[in-house]
Design goal:
heterodimer; A: alpha/beta; Fumarate Reductase Iron-sulfur Protein, Chain B, domain 2; FAD/NAD(P)-binding domain; five-stranded parallel sheet; 18 helices; 14 strands; 38% helix; globular; B: alpha/beta; TIM Barrel; Alpha-Beta Plaits; eight-stranded parallel beta barrel; four-stranded antiparallel sheet; 18% strand; binds flavin-adenine dinucleotide; binds flavin mononucleotide; binds iron/sulfur cluster; iron-sulfur cluster binding (chain A); FAD/NAD-binding_dom (chain A); FAD-dependent oxidoreductase (chain A)
Chain lengths: 441, 462
């Protein structure tokens, strides 16, 4: 396969990971925006989890009011630029665009969105600001899409906001998890800097909250605490040989990739375990890093994969091979990974069972486990009275985001169990309103 | 193969497509290139008194992503020396003896008109077009539209020209007048052989929002110009029709205004023009558009079984009537073809806000429904629907009755008082005014998308 040679410079890396949704210029934006029909009760708006008024901002772009367009977008979604680039638009707004029903290419809503937001980010145009101080304080744990969105909205409502972030950069998985061909680090961080300049919240980086004492201090100092902590590390498989060198979790592998680009080494033969979007990403990324042979191994049939079809297509397009109805039994190797022992499976009445005696070994020199992220169960236990559901998700009111400990609120992956950036941004904005309602009662 | 050639008031041309007097006919080079490409004739850029042009001469009207749906200019007549123009006319005629070269002229005194007509005649021009149309720059000097707007002056100048002209004389009319048939009749009285219309319409195509000046901007300022291009076709068609239908005009008409493809040309022809002229489209796309125009025209004629242009010149005229002669018993009703509908609901909002509240939305589907009793058959929904043939207007009267306003007037059957029972809208249902309030509150209306704030209630389906 080897469609991509191993990148050795930043330039080569950028070429292998070229943006899927490059920025539009004014001409392209003008032509594309002109196609929008300005539907009544537009299906695209309904399909957007953050309810951005899409026909409105597209019309604003078309009439040369890009600033107004950016305002429309940010009013609904503080991750407006990131979402335009990383949202699975094929299954959201663009998937709902009425043009699909005519077998005509839907409006490129995502790219138009980023076109407008990039304009204001680049010019630093002031669109929003903090509200009149109301004397109350909110602590936000986690500077991901949920945390930052909550911080913006709370500032707009007049709260003093301090954000505590374990890592060195804001935006959570947007900069540590999303595939590099969807958005660059620079672009992600530019939006973060823009938001912080507009709203003026404080962020403490490299500041993980890990103990009961720290939480107690926050409970003391702040009127409310927002949990935007996302999910944790990749789940353990519990297989023999999982500790071998070059057997890694997808989230950890991608986090490295986003930070160190071409300096991240990938194997020559890579096996990715899993059938979700993260598995697709990890497989694509391995191929673009120059792996010669990338196999995506999934327990069930192709049709049952959790990943979006377009994500699988993307992986196939860079040469990834699917290996379906197989379950890993053991990671083989002597210190280093040398292969994975699989057993074939079959699905009967929705139940997967192993086919006895069908074991075989697929050789490889790297294994990436894309088998889901664990919940932050240990951390959540530190919050008194906070309840989680059977899947480890924080239990909170769907409209206000209030958890079972009334001082605590939650949104994003930690609450929804793992969705998209847009969900975290939309939920957190709503939850900020919930906090406001609670604190002004 | 149908015969595209024409004999327009004695001017012969291999096809009805001429370049209008404008920048594309500014030089022998351009006209030869055009003839080479397939144009049948050219009206030379207007010759006449010496002029000087400004820099920054054109302005455009763009619609969304479409450039130049309208175009305007503040240019004057030819600024090249007369002798050069005449020499080049001669050269073109020698090389293209069967193509039509028409000299467009604009001067002031009787003597000047005599001289310039004689000179162009000697150069070999097949005819003349008197430019009484230019709406800027020249009218201030008592020429162009200043003449076109004064039927008496127009007639007098035509008479001067007829004194010496041995070739057909076309009078080009300005649309900047309330009744186009007045100058047309004056042209006829003066003895002209034909008329051409329209010249450009006085216009300001736009204002620069930062520099507070009209386009095109000349050193921070601007002036009114002449409007042309696709946007003016409807105005041109109506004026062509008016001249063609007037019982006393009876002159061949060269149709001009907004022609850019064969369809536009056929429309002009169906309303009575027997040659057509093109300016903006050639300025926008170059001479190459002629290939599509001739091939389209040919195809149309084959399909309709027309052998010559004259088989259909004016063919639509009997069907253009005064309003009072239209059948008031005719009734169409909108019909939505569900399988084609893409659910944009533009028809709903158009009829709801801009027409007669005759379309409703139903729960569980995005396909709107026509409320037939309320539909007046205005066509609006079928015009806004983005899908071809998705909303059609179907005839719903029996087709057996025919009553016109004129007949009703004659029979004393028209509403006369304000509250007359016979008034049209009297029996048409309209909702109570307050039924409008909050009617679409659960819809994601443009400009007030669902706010995820806990303040706005969550929209329910339909
Ligand atoms: C590999 C991968 C690819 C993805 N691709 C896409 C995509 O293409 N498009 C898309 O829309 N979504 C994608 N997602 C999902 C998306 O990134 C998440 O849904 C989104 O980032 C969730 O936002 P969040 O704020 O809830 O959590 P996160 O983004 O995870 O942010 C949580 C933040 O909290 C910090 N934190 C956690 N615990 C603590 C603590 N105790 N103290 C201090 N800080 C703490 C973390 O360091 C992190 O910065 C992807 C996810 C993954 C894993
Ligand atoms: C830049 C420009 C210059 C023109 N100059 C003349 C002219 O010298 N003489 C004339 O009779 N008409 C002139 N016209 C008018 C055109 O001949 C024609 O009547 C008008 O543009 C409408 O046709 P269109 O819609 O195809 O452009 C000019 C038009 C333009 C755009
Ligand atoms: S559905 Fe498509 S065409 Fe309609 S408003 Fe949305 S983007 Fe525009
Ligand atoms: S034709 Fe006019 S009145 Fe009838 S449904 Fe369409 S828009 Fe409404
Ligand atoms: S305008 Fe046409 S496509 Fe749109 S909803 Fe109405 S019928 Fe359907």
């Amino acid at each position: 396969m080897a469609e991509y040679s191993t990148p050795t410079t930043e330039h080569e890396f950028q070429r292998n990971f070229a943006q899927l949704k490059p920025h539009m210029n004014r001409t392209e934006a003008l032509y594309e925006s002109a196609r929008c029909l300005f539907c009544f009760d537009a299906p695209c708006i309904k399909a957007c989890p953050s309810g951005i008024d899409i026909p409105q901002f597209i019309r604003q772009i078309n009439s040369g009011n890009e600033t107004g367009a950016a305002r429309t977008i940010y009013q609904a979604n503080y991750f407006g630029n990131a979402c335009g680039k990383v949202c699975p638009t094929e299954v959201l707004c663009e998937g709902a665009c009425v043009y699909n029903l005519q077998d005509v290419k839907p409006i490129e809503i995502g790219r138009l969105q980023s076109y407008a937001t990039m304009k204001v980010i680049e010019s630093g145009k002031k669109l929003f600001g903090p509200g009149e101080p109301n004397g109350k304080r909110v602590a936000v744990i986690g500077a991901g899409p949920a945390g930052i969105s909550a911080a913006c909205e709370l500032r707009a409502l007049g709260y003093a906001v301090d954000v505590f972030e374990a890592k060195a950069q804001p935006s959570g998985l947007t900069v540590y998890g999303v595939a590099p061909y969807k958005i660059t680090n620079e672009e992600t961080l530019a939006e973060m800097a823009y938001l912080q300049a507009q709203f003026g919240y404080h962020v403490q980086f490299n500041y993980p909250i890990t103990s009961r004492e720290e939480l107690a201090a926050l409970e003391e100092k702040y009127d409310a605490i927002f949990l935007g902590i996302g999910l944790g590390k990749t789940n353990e498989l519990g297989l023999p040989g999982e500790d071998k060198i070059n057997c890694t979790g997808a989230v950890e592998f991608i986090a490295e990739l986003r930070q160190y680009h071409h300096q991240v080494a990938v194997g020559r033969r890579v096996i990715v375990l899993g059938g979700g979007n993260t598995a697709m990403d990890a497989a694509s990324e391995s191929a673009r890093l120059g792996a010669e042979h990338v196999v995506l191994a999934y327990r069930r049939g192709k049709e049952e994969m959790g990943a979006y079809e377009f994500e699988y297509d993307l992986a196939k397009a860079v040469g990834v091979k699917g290996l379906f109805n197989v379950a890993p039994v053991e990671i083989m190797g002597n210190g280093y990974v040398s292969g994975v022992k699989f057993v074939r499976t079959e699905t009967k009445d929705g139940k997967v069972s192993e086919v006895a005696g069908s074991e075989f070994i697929e050789p490889c020199d790297m294994v990436i486990k894309a088998t889901g992220q664990a919940k932050q169960t240990d951390f959540l236990r530190l919050v008194p009275g906070l309840k989680t559901d059977s899947k480890g998700r924080i239990i909170a009111n769907a409209h206000t985001g209030q958890t079972t400990n009334p001082q605590y609120f939650a949104s994003g992956d930690a609450w929804n169990g793992g969705a998209e950036v847009v969900n975290a941004a939309a939920e957190a904005k709503q939850t900020a309103r919930g906090i406001h309602a609670y604190l002004t009662k | 193969m149908p015969d595209l050639s024409i004999n327009f008031a004695g001017i012969k041309s291999p096809n009805p497509f001429w370049l209008a007097s404008a920048p594309p006919t500014n030089s022998g080079y351009q006209v030869m290139k055009a003839f080479d490409a397939g144009w049948g004739g050219a009206v030379w850029k207007t010759l006449g008194v010496p002029v000087v042009n400004v820099s920054s001469r054109y302005g455009g009207v763009n619609y969304r992503d479409k450039r130049l749906v309208g175009f305007n200019n503040i240019e004057l007549i030819s600024d090249r020396p007369l002798a050069d123009n005449l020499r080049e006319i001669e050269e073109v005629k020698k090389r293209f003896p069967h193509h039509a070269v028409i000299a467009s002229l604009m001067v002031q005194s009787r003597q000047e008109w005599h001289d310039i007509v004689r000179q162009s005649q000697e150069a070999g021009a097949d005819g003349f077009e008197l430019n009484f149309g230019c709406p800027h720059g020249m009218c201030e000097r008592g020429m162009g539209s200043a003449v076109g707007q004064e039927p008496k002056v127009l007639q007098m100048i035509v008479e001067w020209v007829m004194e010496v002209a041995q070739k057909p004389v076309i009078v080009k009319l300005t649309p900047n007048i309330s009744d186009i048939t007045e100058p047309a009749l004056a042209a006829r009285r003066g003895g002209a052989d034909a008329i051409s219309l329209i010249n450009t319409i006085q216009s300001i195509v736009g204002v620069d929002l930062d520099r507070f000046a009209p386009y095109p901007i000349v050193d921070g300022q601007g002036t009114n110009g002449g409007y042309c291009g696709p946007a003016v076709k409807p105005i041109a068609l109506n004026m062509v029709k008016n001249c063609a239908q007037h019982p006393d005009v009876r002159l061949p008409i060269s149709g001009i205004g907004g022609i850019e493809n064969w369809r536009d040309a056929v429309e002009h022809l169906l309303l009575g023009a027997s040659s057509v002229q093109v300016c903006t489209a050639a300025m926008h796309f170059g001479f190459g558009i002629i290939r599509e125009m001739t091939s389209g025209l040919e195809q149309y004629m084959v399909e309709k079984g027309f052998n010559t242009i004259y088989d259909f010149v004016g063919k639509a005229l009997p069907n253009v009537l005064p309003w009072e002669q239209l059948n008031m018993k005719y009734k169409v009703t909108a019909q939505i073809h569900e399988q084609k509908c893409i659910g944009c609901q533009l028809c709903y909002t158009a009829c709801e806000d801009g027409a007669h509240q005759a379309i409703r939305l139903n729960a569980g589907t995005r396909v709107p429904e026509i409320i037939e009793e309320n539909c007046v058959g205005c066509n609006l929904c079928s015009l806004v629907c983005p899908v071809e043939q998705c909303i059609t207007m179907e005839r719903t009267d029996a087709g057996t009755e025919h009553v016109t306003w004129k007949e009703r007037t004659e029979a004393g059957d028209i509403p006369v008082a304000f509250n007359d029972e016979k008034a049209g809208g009297r029996h048409h249902w309209v909702p109570a005014p307050t039924a409008a309030l909050g009617k679409e509150r659960h819809k994601t209306l443009p400009g007030k998308a669902r706010v995820l704030s806990g303040e706005t209630d969550v929209p329910a389906e339909a």
